[in-house]
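ok trying again, last paste got cut off:
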Amino acid sequence: MHLSKIVKFGLPLMLLSACTMTQNRGQLKIEDARKDVLMGEWQDKAGMLSTFSNGKFETRTPDTNEKLAEGNYNIEEDNSINIEVKSLVKGNVSKVNCNLRHFNNTLYCAPMDEALSATAFSLFRVN
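nice, full thing came through this time. structure:
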């Protein structure tokens, strides 16, 4: 009799908790995928290689591997990407706003300062 009560009341609770665990795992995967959309290596037309990982990035030269810039990035809820760039060459900090186009693996970026709009750039996914 005691075993039948455990099966009768315990089994539905176990199934419910399993559904909750599966649902939470699914939500985490969606969140992680959104957060990691830039993770990996990106290259500009001049061959400079930028590596993005967990909200941080750095840009290096392709020939000497010298670090040219570093900074942070944040992916907004509308999937726009804000990047704060610290130039190690010029010694200044700038902010850019980017949009990722998944169909061609290209990141289109423009400075947030409208006076610098001529310095818009694109990055192409390497891996």
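cool. The helical segments are 2-35. The CA atoms of residues 79 and 103 lie 15 Å apart.
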